[in-house]
Amino acid sequence: MKARANNNIVLIGFMGVGKGTVARELVEQSKFFAIDCDDLIESLENRTIKKIFEESGEKYFRELERKTAKWLEKNVKNSIISTGGGFYKVENLKKIGTIVYLQSSFDAIFERILHHPNAKHKLAKRPLLKDLKKAQNIFNDRIKKYKKCADITINVENRTAKEIAKEILNMF
Ligand code: S3P
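A: This is the predicted complex of the input protein with shikimate-3-phosphate.
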């Protein structure tokens, strides 16, 4: 696989699938630095994602994602970029880097979140996970779309972040 010109690896996939964890493992196993889109948005706005959703709504949050995507395209090279679950919709996605989709079933994602030592916080900070049925609908709507915009799809179910990161790095 030939990396795109800016040499970034962009991790996409559903909320709670482990994009952040895999990004940290990729950093361990490479010389890359990692950037997280939600962290960029929070520092840009000086408030949490939860607050942005509550105070300004989802539409405004999606505008911030598009703004962040443009900034990443222009300014970031040689990095691991982890994204929020809805970031795949930005129109310049492919211009940011090579797109790696972390794929898992809905049940496995929820198991992962619920068994996490910090489960309460993981759920509380994600407004779109408040209602399980709605979250399942969003998941069903997105699975094909994630796959469609990915350069590489990696099945992450029942695998450690170490194994996943190794597989990703071996592809370049
Ligand atoms: C969202 C995912 C979240 C965050 C926001 C919206 C989504 O990020 O960007 O709550 O639309 O799927 P994570 O995927 O890191 O949970």
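The beta strands are 9-12, 33-36, 79-82, 98-103, 152-155. The chain is about 55% helix and 15% strand.
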